[in-house]
């Protein structure tokens, strides 16, 4: 019996370890980069093809990068998208760096969604950027937690789509 793309993806989601080996001295936190995730996932692909692409878009006068992470076995395809705003006037960056930074950020979160990489302790989740924020409502097993959140009526399906990095297949199951 041939394993399906989805059963193989489920195994990768369970086994993948992408530690936060980068350190931001300014913010005093550890993080993982898109490159760290790619390095960690490659040994798990075993014939699957992973590709990343970007598209620059505009909404309400704001430019953003929409990254697409696509995993395929040549027959079936699983796609996850993520977006990141572009600030062309970001201090200390030229326009190419601003676009590149947004691309890397969006790709990282598309990969997080595809491989269910938990970012509850990610710099973006814990760095308050001088603002008081509440802790994110994500657990190690996002899908099980999402089921509980919907059952308890703490989250609507729309809110889960916006706040949780769930795959389209998981959203369909919800």
Number of strands: 5
Q: Please outline the major beta sheet.
A: 3 strands, antiparallel
Mean pLDDT: 82
Strand content: 15-25%
Radius of gyration: 17 Å
Description:
By secondary structure, this protein is of the alpha+beta class. 41% of the residues lie in helices and 21% in strands. The protein has a domain at 5-117. Strands 3-4-5 form a 3-stranded antiparallel sheet. The longest helix has 21 residues, at 95-115. Mean pLDDT is 82; it is low at 128-140.
Key attributes of the depicted protein:
globular, 5 strands, 3-stranded antiparallel β-sheet, 174 residues
Topology readout:
Blueprint lengths: L4 H11 L6 E3 L4 E3 L2 H12 L3 E11 L2 E11 L4 E9 L9 H21 L7 H4 L15 H10 L5 H7 L4 H6 L1
Antiparallel strand pairs: 1-2, 3-4, 4-5
